[in-house]
Design brief:
By secondary structure, this protein is mainly beta. The protein has a five-stranded antiparallel sheet, with no helix packed on it. A three-stranded antiparallel sheet has the order 1-2-5, with no helix packed on it. A hairpin with a 5-residue loop joins strand 7 and strand 8. It starts with a strand and ends in an 8-residue tail after the last strand. The mean pLDDT is about 90. Bound molecules: zinc ion. Zinc ion (ZN) binds next to loops. The site of zinc ion has 9 residues, from loops.
Length: about 130
């Protein structure tokens, strides 16, 4: 399955539909505008150049966000560091919504991580092609 940024300079190919979609509410995901699907990083193929953002407001950030240097669309995050696991978040908003219809959307509560024992800020929904908040 293939997606692209808004201008088309960056394309991403993932090996399958994601197991689920994650509409995370942490400050980073919120401001980047994302709906994550997770894959082994070794199985995600890119064409085109991305730029990288490593947050500096938290010590020891474990992932960097990547985005198209032309249109600015967030494309993915990548684990950083020596022993980084083979895991990547891909922004599924860059894919055809029709390809995601029927997939469960989870609402990860990273904004209140540590204080919300459910780790979700609302119950799961099913992606209907119109948007994650259906
Ligand atoms: Zn672009």
């Amino acid at each position: 399955m293939q997606g692209s940024c808004h201008c088309g300079a960056v394309t991403i190919r993932v090996p399958s539909t994601p197991e689920y979609l994650n509409d995370c509410n942490c400050t980073l995901c919120w401001k980047l505008g994302t709906l994550w699907g997770y894959f082994p990083a070794s199985q995600v193929e890119f064409s085109g150049a991305v730029r990288t953002y490593l947050r500096s407001d938290m010590p020891g950030a474990q992932l960097s966000a990547e985005f198209c240097g032309s249109c600015g669309a967030t494309t993915n995050w990548r684990m950083v560091g020596e022993d980084a696991p083979d895991r990547m978040g891909v922004n599924m908003l860059l894919f055809d919504p029709a390809d995601l219809t029927g997939i469960e959307v989870r609402y990860g509560d990273r904004r209140n991580y540590g204080t919300n024992p459910r780790h979700h800020y609302r119950d799961p929904t099913i992606f209907d092609g119109a948007g994650a908040n259906a």
